[in-house]
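W.,

You were right to be curious about this one. When I first looked at the sequence I had no strong expectations either way, so I just let the prediction run and decided to look at it fresh. Below is the sequence, 363 residues in total, followed by the output.
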Amino acid sequence: MAEPLKNSYNRAYITRLAKALKQHHPKFDSKAFSKAVFDKQWQERELKARMSHIRGCIYDCLDLPYEDALTVLLPAAESFGGYEAMFFPEYVEVYGQGHWDASMQALEVLTQYSSSEFAVRPFIEMDTQRMMGQMMSWAQHDNEHVRRLASEGCRPRLPWAKALPAFKQDPALIVPVLTQLRCDPSLYVRRSVANNLNDIAKDNPEVTLDWMQQYFGDNELTDWIIKHGCRTLLKQAHPEALSLFGYGDVSAIKVASFTVDTPSLREGEDLAFSFDIKRRGGELGKLRIEYGIDYQKANGSLSRKVFKVAEGQYNASNLSFQRRQSFRPMTTRKHYPGTHRVALLVNGVELALEEFELAAVGQ
């Protein structure tokens, strides 16, 4: 099992951090800093809490006015990267909202070592118009990490971050930034643009669809963004999204030999099933083939999760598939015993459905 990321903040890491801070501020008390970090509550803190605690300890031990502190933090940050170094931009987020220009310059620098995607969000809420003007400027930056920040930081539903309710209601100010980045040469940036479009689609599908219809077919880079940005709409079988990619009528398509090989299973085992997709007297054509698992919930209702099997242009008249779906214990989904269902979907249309039983733990 992989080492938890929170354990990256070990004594060697904190010692290295203290050394970097002292290099740029000789009065920095390294011993007091290390003692403050590894306090009595340290072991109880999870990743984000440890990150914030380190940020607070830096603030206390530097004991400098904000803009003076930046002259220490920015050069020190050059030696640290990855998610674990996000206490640097968090310093700007927490203490820098009254120093707009200095904070914008700092976030631009710091995102090139870790990421300022969380730290920009309070600034968006504080002065949305001004901050989105900054995001547009960053969208034209030479550095791909800064351009990604322009998109990632304003995602309405950025994972692990506080949502932006104003953008969930009206994402109009995001659209120019995404348009600026629609042909970005960096996959890192394009993936963020796609994720932002997918976020928007969950609350304002018409905005994502309008954007996709406007730019689909312009070039391969934009088409990649559009394909990944409408994944939620495709899973929801939104007719306009399906039509955009040429997924049409499936009235001549049939599911045959649909077999659930494990009609009864226990948690930790796999659901195994197989099926054929056929079209009598012709080619299958362009298809998006998926399956949905209707998971039993605690209250006895069912909740569907859709998984892609295959998609493409098929010249054959018959395709065969075998699939397995794990029911191992997960932190993101609790499995409840009882009747579940597996559905087969072609171009968003449910063509077959079978039940299976998940036994209670210990049975």
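Here's what jumped out at me. Residues 253-359 form a domain with the Immunoglobulin-like fold (CATH 2.60.40.1930). And, maybe more interesting for your project: The chain has two domains: 5-241, 253-359.

Coffee later to discuss?

I.
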